[in-house]
Each structure stands twice: as structure tokens, then as C-alpha cells.
């Protein structure tokens, strides 16, 4: 009986060891838990190769080794990314959802007769700096951008205007597309006058419709705080519409 009991114990030990080895193999060695599928949300306009390179997700990464917090931090270092959310889905999938920064306005400075353009996102960060005007966006003039570089943020006063401009873009995209330029005319240390130039639409609409359009524009711009108080000048002589407001 003693011999049979020893054989039974050895047999059970071997079976349990084999099962444990199988479990270890499945969890730590089997390709079943390798990250094989990585999904992305639509309309990110950033190549998947760039995202994977920036994220730090390496080939042959196992599910239990994936660190989504590090991946998110790495991706957030890219200025094109406003926000990112990564989910790990059992047993071998990663889902990446990116909110992309997009420029909503262009600022510029004149350096010895040469223009340098700054493309600014809705949160006030300078996304790009170029000698070429590569986007058709509302121009913001009158800013002091000396020394500003990609990654810098606009000062708080200007940031408010950018956010309000983004409000118009989201809620009244047609009017946003009519904005040609927003000029900040410094009056003193604290105050400035905002001059809002609308794109030349004189030949595209009837004159009797101009005032209706201006009325709608004024309401939207007042709601979004792009203009303060009532505007006092409407100039249609050159085909350009100019709205003035003071801050």
C-alpha cells in the first residue's frame, strides 16, 4: 500500500506540475497574449506609424506587460495631440482614441520685411511656425510674438479671443469662414480696440442683404465675446465689411 501511495503522490505531483507549466506557457510564452490588434479612431489625420512610434508600443508586447499610462504620456508629448485615451482589451488588443489639435487662427510677425506665420490651436498653443501661409484661417494681427516658438502658449488675454473664435467655428462655421482678420490695436497698457475684418463678399450678395448678414454676425460675435459693446463702423465702400468693438 505504501508503494502505491507514493506512486499516486508522484503521479498527482507530475500532473499538477504539468498543468502549472501549461498555465505558465499560456500566460507568459504563448503568442495568444501578444498584442496583435491596435485600433484607432477615425479622422485623426496623424499616421498610425507615427502614433505607434511616439507611443512606445513595441512589437511582441504581451498583454500583461502593456503600460497604457506610459503610452498616453508619450503620445501627449506630440503637439498635434490635444488628448488621448488608451484602453487595453483582453486578451490581445489596444484601442487608441486621439483628439487632435487643429489650428483655428494664424498670427504673424514682420521680421525685416519677411513674414513669419504662427498657426495657433484652440487652446492657444502654437502648433507650427512657417515662412509660408499654408492654411486658410482667420488672421490675428497686432500681437507681439517676438521670441515665440512652437509649443509656446499665447498670453491669457489673447487666449480668450482664440477660445471665443473657436466657439464661432464650432457653432457658426459659415461665419467663421467669413472672418478675414482680427486686429488688436493697442490703445494703452490695458486697453485695446478689436477690429474685425470680414472677407470680401460685396460681389457675392445683394446690398439689401448686407445689413441682415451683418446683424447675424454681430449677434454671434457678441455672444462669443469676439466684440465688446456695440460696433460703430460698417464700411462697405471697398467691398470689405469692418466691425469695430472696444475692450
Features of the shown structure:
247 residues; alpha/beta; Ubiquitin-like (UB roll); Rossmann fold; seven-stranded mixed β-sheet; 27% strand
Question: What would you say about this model in short?
Answer:
Residues 34-99 form the POTRA domain. With 247 residues, the chain is an alpha/beta fold.
Secondary structure layout plus pairing:
Layout: H1 2-29, E1 37-40, H2 48-55, H3 68-76, E2 81-89, E3 93-100, E4 103-111, E5 114-121, E6 126-130, E7 139-141, H4 156-171, H5 173-176, E8 179-186, E9 192-198, H6 207-223, E10 241-246
Parallel strand pairs: 1-3, 4-7, 7-8
Antiparallel strand pairs: 2-3, 4-5, 5-6, 8-9, 9-10
What does it look like?
By secondary structure, this protein is of the alpha/beta class. The protein folds into three domains: 1-33; 34-101, Ubiquitin-like (UB roll), CATH 3.10.20.310; 103-244, Rossmann fold, CATH 3.40.50.10960. It has six helices and ten strands; from the N terminus they run H-E-H-H-E-E-E-E-E-E-H-H-E-E-H-E. The strands form two sheets. Strands 6-5-4-7-8-9-10 form a seven-stranded mixed beta sheet. The protein has a three-stranded mixed beta sheet with strand order 1-3-2. It starts with a helix and ends with a strand.
Sequence of strands across the biggest β-sheet: 6-5-4-7-8-9-10
Mean pLDDT comes to: 78
**Net shape:** elongated
The total beta strand count reads 10
Determine the CATH topology of the largest domain. Answer: Rossmann fold
Strand share of the residues?
Answer: 25-35%
* Structural class estimated from helices and strands: alpha/beta
Helical content (DSSP H or I, runs of 4+): 25-40%
| CATH class term of the largest domain | Alpha Beta
Q: Which series of helices and strands comes N to C?
A: HEHHEEEEEEHHEEHE
Largest sheet: 7 strands, mixed
Task: Supply the CATH architecture of the largest domain.
Answer: 3-Layer(aba) Sandwich
**Helical stretch count?**
6
Distance between the termini: 100 Å
Amino acid at each position: 500500500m505504501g508503494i502505491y501511495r507514493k506512486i499516486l503522490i508522484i503521479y498527482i505531483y507530475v500532473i499538477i506540475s504539468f498543468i502549472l507549466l501549461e498555465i505558465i506557457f499560456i500566460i507568459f510564452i504563448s503568442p495568444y497574449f501578444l498584442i496583435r490588434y491596435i485600433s484607432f479612431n477615425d479622422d485623426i489625420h496623424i499616421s498610425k506609424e507615427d502614433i505607434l512610434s511616439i507611443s512606445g508600443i513595441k512589437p511582441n508586447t504581451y498583454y500583461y506587460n502593456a503600460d497604457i499610462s506610459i503610452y498616453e504620456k508619450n503620445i501627449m508629448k506630440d503637439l498635434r495631440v490635444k488628448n488621448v485615451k488608451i484602453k487595453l482589451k483582453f486578451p490581445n488588443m489596444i484601442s487608441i482614441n486621439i483628439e487632435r489639435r487643429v489650428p483655428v487662427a494664424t498670427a504673424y510677425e514682420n521680421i525685416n520685411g519677411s513674414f513669419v506665420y504662427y498657426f495657433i490651436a484652440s487652446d492657444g498653443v502654437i502648433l507650427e511656425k512657417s515662412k509660408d501661409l499654408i492654411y486658410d484661417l482667420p488672421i490675428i494681427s497686432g500681437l507681439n510674438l517676438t521670441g515665440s516658438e512652437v509649443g509656446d502658449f499665447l498670453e491669457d488675454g489673447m487666449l480668450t479671443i482664440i477660445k471665443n473664435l473657436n466657439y464661432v467655428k464650432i457653432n457658426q462655421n459659415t461665419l467663421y469662414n467669413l472672418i478675414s482678420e482680427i486686429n488688436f490695436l493697442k490703445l494703452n497698457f490695458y486697453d485695446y480696440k478689436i477690429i474685425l475684418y470680414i472677407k470680401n463678399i460685396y460681389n457675392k450678395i445683394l446690398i439689401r442683404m448686407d445689413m441682415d448678414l451683418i446683424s447675424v454676425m454681430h449677434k454671434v460675435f457678441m455672444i462669443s465675446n469676439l466684440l465688446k459693446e456695440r460696433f460703430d463702423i460698417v464700411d462697405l465702400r471697398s467691398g470689405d465689411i469692418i466691425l469695430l468693438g472696444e475692450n
